[in-house]
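Researcher: Let's try something more involved. This one mixes different molecule types, so please make sure each is placed in the same coordinate frame as the others.
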Amino acid sequence: MSHVSAIELEIKDLDALKAACERLGLKWKEGQTTYKWYGHWVGDYPLPEGFKVEDLGKCSHAIGVPGASYEIGVVTRNGKTTLLWDFWSSGGLERVLGQGGGKLKQAYAVEAAKRAAKKAGYRVQEKRTLLDRFRGAVGMKQVDGIRLTLRRY
Amino acid sequence: MAKEIIIDIDDEGAVEVHTHGFKGKACMKAAEFIESALGRILSTKKTGEYYAEEVKETVRIKTNGN
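Model: All components are placed in one shared frame. Result:
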């Protein structure tokens, strides 16, 4: 029997996040407690869940993104890690990391999955390829992505 | 059939986990560690209902007595 699960990413492994930064050529700034952003809340988008306006701009660590003037804030609270970023176009983050920071999410998922798989005794093969995705009424669509294949030693 | 777990991560960061070749409920069990490492599961489906080519695989598994 086979099955497919769709997963909403949660950042649970900071080492995997650091490895994801390395993979993308981003700079992990350990212990940097502020990150560069527009600087004040304009209220055009909802705040991340559990955050207040005064929390913006503050973080536990930061990520520098070459080619972007803004930075990403890494906030860990009660064991849960949230990435804060200002995707206002002049900050450049979406231009480098894709819409919604997709490239960073992808790199994190790859690194976190590889670590978990190796810990569980799997051999991991990584390949950049076209992936089949089900897109509702559109049916199957091929999208660019990374495929990890896990097998037992 | 070889047991495999396939993790597809597209360039937008969307993750799908596929398992192949595990017996019965073992396929759900096999992927649990990946799913718990990465986040919250949004949906789970048997692939036979999803991809035509997987239906073929499911049939083959059945004839092998799995």
